[in-house]
# Entry
Amino acid sequence: MEKLIIFDTTLRDGEQSPGASLTIREKVAVAKQLEKLGVDVIEAGFPIASEGDFQAVKKVAQTVQEPAVCGLARANTKDIDRCWEAVKYANNPRIHTFIATSKVHREAKLRKNKDEILKITEEAVKRAKSYTDNVEFSPEDAARTNLDYMCDVVQVAIEAGASTVNIPDTVGYSNPEEFGQRIKYILDNVPGAEDIIISVHCHNDLGNAVANSLAAVKNGARQVEGCINGIGERAGNASLEEIIMNIETRKEYYNLETNITTEEIYKTSRLVSTLTGLLVQRNKAIVGENAFAHEAGIHQHGVLSDKNTYEIMTPEKVGWKGRNLVIGKHSGKHAVTAVLEDEGFELSKDEIKQITKKVKDLADKQKKVEPEEVVAIAREITHQLTEEEKYIDLREMTVTCGLNMTPVASLKLRVDGEEVMGSGFGDGPVDAVSNAIWDILGQSFQLEDFHLDAITGGTNALANVSIKLLDENNNLFSARAVNEDVVKASAYAIIKGVNKAYNYKKKIHPQDTNTEV
Ligand code: KIV
Ligand code: ZN
# Structure
């Protein structure tokens, strides 16, 4: 059977989802899980975009063994050189260079004519090829590019030495029939196309990303790109787990095999959702909470008699395990570890101890702790700052708010070893707390984003606060905190964001910024 190459871009295109930025440690955790899943290529980031992205790609390249590690680069020398500096540590490094080819992109964005784009393509691929034989080229917005001109660009890329040419539907405009025909046309008309890998990369703006990718595969594409849980720019990228399970479940139709261990799918999905904070919709194919739940009596009866009546794949095949563990104050570290392992966490003994203690404290207050709450606590503990990284720390806090009064907060912080008091008013309690912090620091940050989730619903639910702070140089820092108390969770998140900003200045953790260069 021929092989289909699975190219994961969760850490690059997926991370471009609004609000989904990951730290280096989180990216490495995802990359390790992707390796267990068995993907062939990990696109780990866009090294020229920021110092953080560069360091993340380098770290992933140094960590994983089996998959090729790829970095993205625009079609220019600076991007390509920087990309190579990051991926060169991998056992199998890949440079992925791209330039837009559609009329609207050429004229409105690049202001280049067709011949200029052909020349840039040739030079970029040759530059990348001077570093490695593993070069991928993408004509961005290929699906809206004139077919014959797109073929000219593909031919130039092949002649310059690209080993993979990727055809993106950048804006999710195509449909299965048209996109499949586009791939067939390349294979039938571009000399040398059958000697390299033709890849596809589909966005989901019209909900066609998976169908378009599969149509392309049926017409000869031998690499598919996508993201776990279908995350990505705007409506997302093709959902990799859906593509994989199509190939697996309909083997007789596609006649292709992959390197994927499907039993790792669910774990990978949970890890990506936990770390990016992007929830998976309940009825999402393959990895949604309801994907294997049968509600109607007639279905339940059928499945109990013979699973084949309503189940085309088993939950075990994708590594789905029911969540029937009840966590209470008598639950020990084994129950906690079981929940977290299912979510893809790899924890040290000390982290398990700290998490179990927090879970028990919470169970004392609310009797039962939901798995989602265990995950939120684990996420908090595994991302806490070290003592050295805590430039400021919360010591005391009083917040008063009510009807017909202005909310006021008084705080005592430890700032660089000394205890300092301050206060602030605000439109609400969180605003008052942040003003009190700025009062103490004598400097304010802009709270760019504030997101509050009640983890399980109910008035006693754990609050999960995610924030983004902007410093005076337009660097953006994200932080999260969970607590039973919404105001405390907000204060902890803001303080963590401030600490990240100070650490960034002191270069303790330069990766903790989302700044675009
Ligand atoms: O969607 C797109 O066109 C891309 C390219 C960089 C491959 O992400
Ligand atoms: Zn894309």
Remarks:
- The chain has a mean pLDDT of 90.
